[in-house]
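ugh ok so i messed up the first submission bc i forgot one of the chains. this is the corrected input, ALL of the components this time, i swear. 222 residues overall. if the numbers dont match what u have on ur side tell me asap before i send this to the collaborators (the ones from the other lab, u know who)
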Amino acid sequence: MESKIGAGMTLTQEAAQRRVADIISAIPVVLTEYRCPLCARVFPGYSGLREHYEAEHAGAIAPIVVMLMLNGKGCEVLIEPHWTLKRTLQFRLGLTGTKHMCDKGVCGSCTVIMDGRPVLACQILTAECEGRDIQTIEGIAADPKWKPLIDAYCRWDAMQCGYCTTGFLVTAKALLDRNPNPTERECREALAGNICICGTYPRHSQAIIEAAAAMSGGGVDG
Ligand code: FES
Ligand code: FES
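and heres the new structure output, hopefully the right one now
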C-alpha cells in the first residue's frame, strides 16, 4: 500500500516502517552529554551539570535523568522534572506521533500504551515513567505484526486530516492485545476516549474488526 505525500513523492508503507524503525534506533540508550537548559553549556557527566546548577543557577530546579523502556528499548533522557511524557516524547526524543491537541486529558490524541494499558501522555509526568514499559505509535508502526491494523485503517479511510489517527491506532492496538476478536460495540467502547474533530468514528470499528480477522488468519476480501 502506498500514499501520496506531495508532488511526485510516494511513501510506501514499507518505507514508512523503515523510517520509524530508524527513528527508534537513533534514540541513544545512554546519555553522553548533559546540556544545561538555562545556558546551553554541555557537561560530560550528570554530576558536572548538578554542580553547575549549584554554582550558576542557585535556586533553579536542576534537570533529572530518567530511564525509559520505550518501544522495547531502554533509553536515558535528561528532562526537567515537570515535563509530561508527551513533552519528552516530542521534544526530547523526536517521537512526534504522540500528538499534542487538548493537553487536558480529553481528546486521546496523545495516547500511548504503558504496562499494557492505553494512557494519556499529556497527563503523566515523565518522572513517573521510570522503568515502565511504554509503546508509542512509532513502535507499533515499526512492528510488522501490526501491519494488518494499519492496512485496515488505510483501506477503510479511517482518517481525514489524520491528526487524531495515531491516538486511535494506539488505543486500537491496546484493545486487540487484550481482545483479539472485538465486537463493534467493544471497539466503540474502547475508543470512547478518542475524539476526532473530522468525525471519522464509524470507520474505526470497521477497520479494527477487519484487522482482527486478518490477524487471526481470516483474511480480507477485495
Ligand atoms: S493531548 Fe492528551 S488527551 Fe488531548
Ligand atoms: S481525522 Fe481529523 S481530527 Fe480525526
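quick check: The chain has two domains: 5-139, 141-215. that seems consistent at least. Residues 159-165, 196-198, 200 surround FE2/S2 (inorganic) cluster (ligand 2) (CB under 6 Å).
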